[in-house]
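Lab notebook: predicted structure, single chain.

Context: the supervisor wants predicted structures on file for every construct in the current expression panel, including those that have not yet been purified. This is the next one on the list. No modifications to the sequence; it matches the entry in the shared construct table.
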Amino acid sequence: MFRKFTNACVTLVQKLMPDPFLFCIILSFVAIILAIPLTGQGFLAIMRHWGNGFWGLLPFSMQMALVLVLGNAMATSPPVSRFLKFLASIPKTPAGAIVAVTIVGYTASWINWGFGLVVGALYAREIAKTGKRVDYRLLIASAYIGFLSWHGGFSGSVPLQIAMPVAAGGVVANTGGAVAQAIPISDTIFAPFNLVIVFALFILMPFVNAKMHPKDEDVILISPELLKEEEVVEKKAVTPAEKLEQSRVVSMITGILGLIFLALHFQRTGIRGLDLNAVNFIFLMVGILLHGTPIRYVRAIGKGIKGAGGVLLQFPFYAGIAGIMGGVTAVAAGGTGLSLAVVISKAFANAASPASWPLLSFLSCWVVNFFIPSGGGQWAVQGPIIMPAGAELGVSPAVTAMTYAWADSWGNMITPFWALPALGVAGLGARDIMGYCVVALLTSGVVLWTVMLLLGQGLLLP
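Prediction complete. Output recorded below exactly as produced.
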């Protein structure tokens, strides 16, 4: 029964879901159509918001492209490749392989989301190369489904931001003044209700993913094209330039200098310093060391760049959608003075009571997440609305912040935005995995909705 339901979801998504680029184009059209009547802004005003927002994710786009390229380059180094092969040999059955990939992706994402996005997919690809009859699409989907844990973990952007001193990081502005003092991570990441969600999904999702594995005759294996390894024969260095390119000393000095900086960085910042820039710096320096010579690393980067096209093409369009969602035209110019994201958030807030607020806040954030899948970008638009609304209802700011965090993670299961790095590593398209992600959305939703309802009743709180 469950397998039939999974097959139906997979078939439906494969038939209806367009390429991720077309998906974000369609989302742009929907945002434009909704914004005009709901915000009272004219078409030209909406176009200005769209165009002004278009390049708002440029730094983030570069970071995400580097996560994919640098992570892939590090993984293809001989030492890491051998280690991944060893790990890939441990699972003996298709179900065991799916469980192992889910746990690795989930745990890595809980530690750091940038790390988790790439590591899970790389491990899944290595398992696929072992010759086990494991469905390749489900392997990669399982790695991505592990991303569910990120916003409830150590790199969750919202719990980390509101834990900062109020004078830093725009905390007051991003919470509409609802947070007057720092909220420690003991009230968010390590709160009982958050740990219940984290551990419940840790148990549930590997089981669900294993149950989704198709019958043997329906299994799709890794493409032979992805198994081909390009052999590079290094010629003997003759010229001074060639000797530098093949110098292990140059790579070693560069990598050691990088590691010295990392030691100083984490001595000063602790675990909080493990942001996306730090992850990329680790990937870069460790990759240089592991490849041995500069020219080998250059070749590895060249191979990895091929998978970054989706990130570079689509992220500007998502930034444009964020511009529409957050764009405001003054009342004097014919608008309502409210952005589309604010209109949606206020509609849910006005219908809420203290008991229903955790669930309704969760749902409002999930709806907005369709259009602004970037956690930090969405928080800047929606945080100043939901945080004061929750405070007015007498709900703890920590609870409201974490309803947002889990809505953001849950929304990632239905939009291909965050799947792009994993898909780039895997050589797959979004429609290959999103059917499985729909099943993960529904099953994980049982846990998340239940916890939100219990929070509304004052349960699971310290």
